[in-house]
Amino acid sequence: MLKEFKDFAMKGNLVDIAVAFVMGAAFNKVVTSFTAGIVSPLIGLLFNSNFNDLKYVITPGVADDSGAIAGEVAVLYGSFLTSLIDFIIVAFVMFMIIKGINKTKKKEVPAPAAPAGPSDNDLLKEIRDALKK
Predict the structure, then answer these.
(1) H or E segment at 38?
(2) What is the pLDDT of residue 36?
(3) 20 to 30 A from 56, CA-CA: which of 46, 49, 88, 126?
């Protein structure tokens, strides 16, 4: 059983998936950093605020002694939009990578067509005619 598990774990496809998963996680951090550091501030200029802080307040909270707002109910759409932008960037880059990989793969050459010859019916007719003689 241990040998079977080792064979399964060391198959090329499983190792490739593991490497892709680790690289994808690292790439996601890069994209998140790009979005938070570059894209969000530029979009935030349009709203004159930090893009991640954009929210729709449903029920305003009450400020306590330390100045923090407690009891506020709000829809944090700025954070959602940032995550959505992250996803779109990652999906687009993955699409481009897959597209590039598919271009580099050798295209399968179709098997040559079988030489045209007499059909089965023609052969049977010839056999029948030969037997009649």
Answers:
(1) none
(2) 79
(3) 88
Length of the chain: 133
pLDDT digits (tens, 9 = 90+) for 23-43: 888 888 888 888 878 877 887
- When divided into structural domains, the chain yields a total of 1
What does residue 116 show for φ and ψ, rounded to 5 degrees? -70, 130
CATH number for the domain harbouring residue 45: 1.10.1200.120
Return the pLDDT at 54. 77
Token pair for 15: 């190792």
Contact assessment for residue 67 and residue 45, using Cβ atoms and an 8 Å cutoff: no
**What six digits make up the tokens of 103?**
């271009």
Owning domain of residue 91: 2-106
First to last CA, the chain: 68
Tokens, residue 120: 């089965």
